[in-house]
Amino acid sequence: MIAAALLSVGLAGCSGAPAPAVRSAPTAPPKATTPAPRVPAGHAPTEAFAVGVRQLKLNRDGDRPLPVTVWYPARGEADGTPERSVAAATGRFPVVMFSHGLGARPEDYQLLLSRWASAGFVVAAPKFPHTGQGGDGNVLDVLNQPADVSYALTQVLALDTKAGDPLRGRLDTERVAAAGHSAGGVTTIGLFTAGRDERLDAGIVFAGTGLGVGTAFAGAAAPQLFVHGEADEVVDYAAGKAVYDAVPWPKAMLSLPKGDHGRALLTDGKALRVVSDTTVEFLRWTLYGDAAAKKRLPADATRGNLATLDDHL
Prior knowledge:
Layout: H1 2-9, E1 50-60, E2 64-74, E3 83-84, E4 93-99, H2 110-118, E5 122-126, H3 145-158, E6 171-181, H4 183-190, E7 202-206, E8 224-229, H5 237-246, E9 251-256, H6 263-266, H7 270-288, H8 291-301, E10 308-312
Parallel strand pairs: 1-3, 4-5, 4-6, 6-7, 7-8, 8-9
Antiparallel strand pairs: 1-2, 2-5, 9-10
């Protein structure tokens, strides 16, 4: 049963106790070559930005409150510390939707997400009504979360033309990615399978599995980067690898031999720097069309011998 399987995964976000590992059944290798990504060639910003942060109060269908934390490139000195409601930097910036893990909050991932914003991306992260911190912990509600992300994305993109909004004219609404950790990784996979959102150009899956959302990737080619610890005590590495193997598009998998379920995403250190630098280069390539970033990606991924990269980009 899906319920039993998802509950056994645990999808522990950042603070839950380890749960028994789940192993997915083997999947067939990807079939045929597919078209190249649709984002045209370009250049990502070379400077680091200051980071602003703000909150949006959204609610889907009146009964699914979705407060969204938004980190964005801002004016001022790039010191890495997000500043609330500071003016946005000049330019038009791609959008990344981020989904948290079970029992977590968007701000738990601020170290990583603010680095994405500093590199020139607007990052929007909803807190889900049942799987977020303080919710009832209903793991099956993960299956409703791809639709939550799509709804939140529509509202975030609308800010680009909203009179008086601080992000008016600052969003590149044609360049969008989705990312997520653990239960948020399931959510992100779902946005490219059963709940395919055709606005998405790329995806990043941290410690994710296809339980409940499947591996029937659909729509236009959207490059995928999977990040998974080989010592993951919650979502078995083989389960994440099985989903990765099923991706029919350009893809890469960053594997951390000593990595667990995701503490590297939450605590500053060498592992987080490898993960953040690798994901930034991936986003620069997929959302800005920056070919130089794609070339740098393997070196960033393997720096310090903390990770390996299976590269099919």
